[in-house]
């Protein structure tokens, strides 16, 4: 019931705070940070995590404007820390020693006038190895690729019909001219059975 009420109150009023980034993909044993930017003064920020695997919504840590942190039950204090700004409207959750058990969606929230304001959430995925970034080489180095941005570009590009149609015709003529030569060669040198 608490989780349902928490989400209902939060998502109906989350315009008063923004949370970034929306997605994080990090490597095991590394660290990461999530920013919670509030639009109004507050007494501090709560951080929660929704675990899809465990199907639980757990309280991680509360940090007040003085920087004092209060941790939830069974929460590793060496893993989570919160840093606030001097204006007390922005808070950063720092997560260290990342592990697969840290996977989940993290939410920042604060209470004001008996209401609970909830952030939009940050999905965190922890993997053993990050995927390699792939970049496309310039088109000038790979003439096989043909990307036409306009009609004018299509007339002059390496893949233009004005270039490959005559080229294909020449190759076809060369192949056809080899047929009679191969036929004559076969007649002059007929195949002989093995052993003769």
From TrEMBL:
<keyword id="KW-0472">Membrane</keyword>
<dbReference type="GO" id="GO:0015026">
    <property type="term" value="F:coreceptor activity"/>
</dbReference>
<dbReference type="InterPro" id="IPR042414">
    <property type="entry name" value="CD8B"/>
</dbReference>
<dbReference type="GO" id="GO:0002250">
    <property type="term" value="P:adaptive immune response"/>
</dbReference>
<keyword id="KW-0325">Glycoprotein</keyword>
<dbReference type="InterPro" id="IPR036179">
    <property type="entry name" value="Ig-like_dom_sf"/>
</dbReference>
<keyword id="KW-1064">Adaptive immunity</keyword>
<keyword id="KW-0393">Immunoglobulin domain</keyword>
<dbReference type="Pfam" id="PF07686">
    <property type="entry name" value="V-set"/>
</dbReference>
<keyword id="KW-0732">Signal</keyword>
<dbReference type="GO" id="GO:0016020">
    <property type="term" value="C:membrane"/>
</dbReference>
<dbReference type="GO" id="GO:0009986">
    <property type="term" value="C:cell surface"/>
</dbReference>
<feature type="domain" description="Immunoglobulin">
    <location>
        <begin position="21"/>
        <end position="127"/>
    </location>
</feature>
<dbReference type="InterPro" id="IPR003599">
    <property type="entry name" value="Ig_sub"/>
</dbReference>
<dbReference type="InterPro" id="IPR013106">
    <property type="entry name" value="Ig_V-set"/>
</dbReference>
<dbReference type="GO" id="GO:0042288">
    <property type="term" value="F:MHC class I protein binding"/>
</dbReference>
<dbReference type="InterPro" id="IPR013783">
    <property type="entry name" value="Ig-like_fold"/>
</dbReference>
<feature type="transmembrane region" description="Helical">
    <location>
        <begin position="161"/>
        <end position="179"/>
    </location>
</feature>
<keyword id="KW-1133">Transmembrane helix</keyword>
<keyword id="KW-0812">Transmembrane</keyword>
<keyword id="KW-1015">Disulfide bond</keyword>
<dbReference type="GO" id="GO:0050776">
    <property type="term" value="P:regulation of immune response"/>
</dbReference>
<keyword id="KW-0391">Immunity</keyword>
<feature type="signal peptide">
    <location>
        <begin position="1"/>
        <end position="26"/>
    </location>
</feature>
<protein>
    <submittedName>
        <fullName>CD8B protein</fullName>
    </submittedName>
</protein>
